[in-house]
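## Example record

The block below lists the input lines for one assembly entry, exactly as stored, with component labels intact.
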Amino acid sequence: MIRIERLKFAYPRGDFALFVPELRVDAGETVAIVGPSGSGKSTLLNLIAGVLRPDAGRIEVDETEVSALSDRRSRTFRARTIGFVFQDFGLLDYICARDNILHPYRICAPLRLTAEIRARVDALATRVGVSQHLHRRPEALSHGERQRVAICRALLPAPRVILADEATGNLDPANKSAILDLLFEAVRTDGATLVAVTHDHDLLPRFDRVVDFRDFTGGEA
Amino acid sequence: MIGAVYLAWAHIQYHAGRSALLVLIFAILGAIPLMTERLATLAEAQLLERANSTPLIYGPPGSQLDLSLSALFFEGEPRAELSMIDFETLADMGLGTPLPILRTHSARGFAIVGIDIEYLEFRQLRIAEGRPMVRLGEAVLGADVAARLGLGPGDKIQSEIREIFELAGAYPLRMTVTGVLDRVGTPDDTAIFTGLRTAWVVAGFGHGHENLATTQDESVVLSRDEGRIVANAKLTEYIEITEENASSFHSHGDPDEFPLSAILIDPNDERSAAILRGRIEDAGSARQVFRPLGVVQELLDEVFRIKSVLNMLVAAVAVATLMALGMMIWLSLKLRRREFEISHQIGGDRSAMVRLVGAELALLIGASAVLCIALLMLIEIFGADLVRALLFGG
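Predicted structure tokens for the full assembly:
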């Protein structure tokens, strides 16, 4: 599903450099990425999603060479294939939960907002337990509820890959476990692949595989 | 695009106070120059119309502007340096219709203007209520005077003395309102019109009191000498002219010397106007006659020169305000940076962000434009009255 070969990346004005000789994640696999802060874990997620372009190397996701896509194709690919979940939830404070879930369909041209999609919002909200909060703005929701809404947004286009960047970082232990349950359920029921950056070592046993970033950072860059 | 407009509208609603402020600022910035331009145009039209409807003004030497303001707009220091001899001289020339004006006093803040009845016809003033002033002590009110003082036919209005010790010996005169004029949107709306004889009484050139020859009260008589009776200060002058005492009103001076403030002249034709002006100018500098249109136009030129400076100041303020708004919008976009990052990460089109911000600005500017148009419509509806009130105090 995800194949990374001899990936090199450095920010133009930073002393940080990322080198990943090889990384493979199979379809339906759940992978946790751990490593010290600033080691490039989030950067790797952005490279996989095509948000960032590598300086060298190759990234292939679902048989698409992401690193070779134009900016426009990269966005289309992201909208259809990737589901992002962020530590700060990334919800817009001026629209309700339902509109936040539908947000990708309002800003991504390839996604069509149909009646079927609207119905799917209700189904997803019920699945993650926020159906009664769809009319509320994020400020009226707890952290756990906000992350559930963010997961709904990520899952709505039925992505092949879910990238979770410290998705449980702002949550209490009970919610951490519950959110992870939801992400794993999505993997099981939708056949998606999960790559999750985390600092929470208690959660690591639940993943199929753990990748330690200390093996990659500062390599040959 | 619908998605961008939807989100933009949601953002505007969420920040309703800030959005309303922006709309108001944009609207005011847009409306002020247009409104002042429109009001200036209306003011110019009204001033010129008044001046244009008055072919010639005859008066004493001095400032033509002061004389125009006094004779046309009943503004400025009241003066009465002409006399009835001037009127008779002009009438004898037979080159046009002289219309005498005497403005020396006021009543409850409105100018009392002594006129011949022909003035009403000349200005096309019609009686809306009641009848014209005919007898001594009667007055007709301009429409705004009547409305603001709540007076109508049958009511009384009393002249005010200008100073505590009036050398002319003018006493307050309580006049009877006999009519109210139609509103015409000129300074005539703000005047109290009387006949010349009444205006002279108001100015102290006529008075009424009990007959000293037949009085039973000898204490009011200072001396009797060969049929000439001199009263002392105890003699009470009438302050209202009634049917009973009207015959006692008289004046002691030469009627030819009774004062006038100005004389409007409606010449028979252009040729008569030219001859009349030539004759007055040939007669020396004791009197002047001129076309008020030119004087008012000069005044307006001055006003518009000042207005152009004000326009520059408004433009400078507008630029500063727009810069402040630009800064505000830039800061707002900085605050929304995370939103745009998220949108980028989840695959949002680059143009979607531009459309989102553009739609919000378009909605705000659109609402401002609507408000601006509404303000301009108000100016269209009420501008003429507003200008009239500002210019003529209506």
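Chain B has eleven helices and 15 strands. Chain B touches chain A at residues 3-4, 6-7, 10-11, 13-15, 338-339, 342-350, 352-353, 356 (CB under 8 Å).
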